[in-house]
Structure to design on (155 residues):
């Protein structure tokens, strides 16, 4: 069974095929939820987060991170019906010796969701799920860009 699954290129959802020099990355800065997403992506991709710069194939420097929530529409009673979540992240890539591999880049992610006033508890949970998905999308974007930078540098 294992041979069949590996032969058909089966992999876990969210898993990446990482180049050898990305099997060990170091993330400098960033919020707890963002670092947790990095950790999960690395685990599913047979990589790991380094505890320090030393020995890391690439250093991802999180320069700034901002999460905003904005009301998009109101009900006739003045309660918010719809929200927009915006996540912005600035980062750059460096090697273990702090030489910049890619200068400052940004990732911006926006999501909208409807806020049903009858199910307030469920909506709080929905916002947490959406935020987690936004962190996950940002990490996937950063890892994909890092792969491109490292592959271009190897040529």
């Amino acid at each position: 069974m294992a041979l069949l699954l590996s032969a058909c290129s089966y992999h876990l959802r969210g898993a990446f095929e990482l180049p050898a020099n990305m099997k060990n990355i170091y993330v400098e800065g960033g919020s707890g939820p963002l670092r947790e997403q990095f950790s999960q992506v690395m685990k599913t991709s047979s990589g790991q987060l380094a505890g320090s710069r030393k020995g890391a194939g690439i250093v991802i420097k999180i320069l700034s991170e901002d999460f905003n929530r904005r009301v998009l529409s109101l009900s006739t009673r003045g309660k918010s019906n719809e929200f927009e979540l915006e996540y912005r992240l600035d980062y750059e890539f460096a090697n273990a010796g702090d030489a910049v591999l890619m200068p400052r880049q940004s990732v911006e992610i926006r999501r909208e969701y409807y806020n049903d006033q009858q199910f307030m508890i469920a909506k709080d949970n929905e916002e947490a799920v959406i935020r987690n998905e936004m962190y996950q999308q940002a990490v996937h974007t950063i890892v994909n860009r890092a792969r491109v930078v490292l592959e271009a540098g190897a040529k």
User: Anything to note?
Assistant: The beta strands are 24-28, 48-49, 58-74, 80-94, 100-114. Residues 17-154 form a domain with the Double Stranded RNA Binding Domain fold (CATH 3.30.160.150).
